[in-house]
Amino acid sequence: MASYLVTGASRGFGLALTHRLASLPASDVTQIFATARGDAPELEELARNSSGRVVVVKLEVTSEASIKQAAADVEASLQGKGLDVLINNAGTCHYAADGVRSMDNLAESFTINVLGVHWVTRTFLPLLQKGTQKKVINISTTLGSITRSRAAHYLPAPAYKISKAAMNSLTVQYALDYEKEGFTFMALSPGWMKTELGGGEMADLTAEEGAKASLDIILRAGQDLNGKFPNILVKGWEKAEGRNQYDGSITPW
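Above: the chain's sequence. Below: its structure in token form.
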């Protein structure tokens, strides 16, 4: 039995994650707090049909006041229990057609992809400390791997890559600080998906495929993955030709 909180759940991968979690038995997933910064009709419909298991929470990851209010709302809903799993999914991807010199969105990317993750994590940390699973999953990308930078250079999204690399480093710092309390902090790459952020139909996987493969890791993850950067496993993609393989390996930083 576990409670989850998913940021950026109004569309794309976050919405697919929430749908997938809601489809699991209540004996495994008791409550899902799905956050959105504004109106989210599909998410709200899912909540209405979930028999109370999905709770929509207003949260803007760039506002500490909004995050603190969301934490208070979640704490009230938990009625004295802790939060088991936090999935920091909310993020942004900006492009710079002429490469790094034309990048004028680094500050916004850092605010959402790094500071937002930090603010949400530290605000919800007391609730996670009361939880039984103590898992924090920061949704990342292999594009944020410094080791693989040359292979990823074809995509003109330097602010996205740089901010995700910084978020990966943030993940490791939290992992080291809280490993003695039994926490598992990981940066998880869910694959290149056919979402608005991912680039639509050009991508490899549907959001549903990415969500299933990601939850396969999240559900079984223990402290052996603390401070690690796992890639998802998708059957048929382990040795796929081209740039992307989804083989369940640990991605190098």
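The chain is about 40% helix and 15% strand.
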